[in-house]
Amino acid sequence: MSTNLKISSVDNALAAAAKAEAARRHLSLSDYLKELVEKDLRKKDTTARRERLFAEIRANPPLGIHSEDTLAARDEARRDSQLSADHRADGIP
Q: Is the whole-model pTM more than 0.70?
């Protein structure tokens, strides 16, 4: 379902610039304006998600885990995974 929207009291210069830009893009003025609205709303949605994420990050204090600890845990998990794969290949459960 769609709804008709109307924009009134637009300055002549602004209207002419919008029409020229729509023509440059091979769009109707209506399609061009719809694209502008859609882009603006997507941008606002992205900004809102980013702000929620940053708020969550600020609300949760750092865990005190250092990159060295993370890398060591990753390497250990990879070694364990490789040992498990080797055992399965040898028929060891």
A: no
